[in-house]
Write a structure and sequence with these properties.
- By secondary structure, the protein is of the alpha/beta class.
- It contains 13 helices and nine strands.
- The protein folds into two domains: 2-42 and 179-274, Rossmann fold (3-Layer(aba) Sandwich); 45-177, 3-Layer(aba) Sandwich (Rossmann fold), CATH 3.40.50.10090.
- 45% of the residues lie in helices and 16% in strands.
- Strand 1 (12-15), helix 2 and strand 2 (35-38) form a beta-alpha-beta unit.
- The longest helix has 14 residues, at 261-274.
- The radius of gyration is 20 Å and the shape is globular.
């Protein structure tokens, strides 16, 4: 019964993850009978300036880092890539053994362990708020906390940790840019208007904002909001993304209890199974 409720058979689901990271998501959709539609709303690039990574590794070497928080697989990959470019990858991994390492969720933890980096903490909720809760339970205060992440990340996590009297440093190990592909966005809009896409899954607030910016020259914000409301089941992978979408005037139809892509697909399947209307129609 659960398996039937989670089916995506005959439905097309838009995936907004960056190119190179959406393949696994596409396979999950196909496994559940759906068809993935790739519309990357974020382009990932490593930084040209590696001085921030060098500063972080030096701080590790001096024993000045108590906690390192990884907020994504990209944070892991691009930190290691930058360290390798500096010739310090092995030193980085060895020095991380002397800190408490936090992974926002199991996928990030898996990436760390794959690279022989221990994981000391995964929060019960795979969000920034979940991390705050977990660190409060540990009475983390007065500590040196570093966060390898994108330069476009929200400062909210760092600000909350500073309110707990911690010294927080964000290490920008990659950039999240706006993709520029007019043909791809034009085709997406055409398919969206034509009712060929049934749902869209937003994995981040930035991805949601970028989609509107990508389509700005082809359709007004108000019209795009109307089309999405009428044509799509909108899925937010977590509460921060859902809040962003709400501020943009979009109603979130589905948000999984566990903030993982596969859980979002399961929740979407259950939503469609219990939604008497089926597909949205204008």
């Amino acid at each position: 019964m659960v398996q039937e409720a989670a089916t995506l058979k005959g439905r097309t689901i838009a995936v907004t993850r960056p190119t190179g990271q959406a393949e696994e998501a596409g396979k999950m959709i196909a496994k559940k009978g759906g068809k993935p539609y790739f519309i990357p709303t974020i382009e990932i690039k490593g930084p040209r300036d590696l001085s921030a990574t060098k500063k972080f590794i030096d701080a590790l070497a001096r024993g000045e880092v108590d906690y390192v928080i990884f907020m994504s697989i990209n944070g892991v990959k691009y930190l290691l890539s930058a360290a390798e470019s500096l010739g310090l990858k092995d030193q980085l991994k060895k020095r991380l053994e002397k800190t408490a390492t936090v992974a926002v969720g199991p996928k990030t933890a898996q990436e760390l362990r794959k690279n022989q980096i221990q994981v000391d903490l995964i929060p019960a909720r795979y969000t920034s708020e979940g991390i705050i809760e977990s660190l409060r339970q540990r009475d983390v205060s007065g500590k040196s906390i570093w966060i390898p992440r994108t330069s476009q990340a929200s400062p909210a996590l760092a600000e909350r940790l500073r309110e707990m009297d911690n010294n927080v440093q964000e290490v920008y190990v990659y950039e999240s840019r706006l993709p520029v592909d007019p043909e791809l966005t034009a085709q997406f809009l055409q398919n969206l208007v034509g009712g060929q896409i049934h749902a869209i899954i937003f994995s981040s607030s930035l991805g949601a904002k970028n989609l509107f910016q990508m389509l700005a020259e082809q359709v007004s914000t108000e019209k795009l909001r109307e089309i999405m409301h009428n044509k799509l089941t909108i899925v937010a992978i977590g509460p921060t993304t859902a809040e962003t979408l709400a501020k943009m005037g979009l109603k979130v139809d589905v948000m999984p209890e566990k903030h993982l892509f596969e859980e979002a697909l399961n929740a979407l399947g259950r939503y469609w199974a219990t939604n008497s209307r089926g597909d949205k129609e204008t």
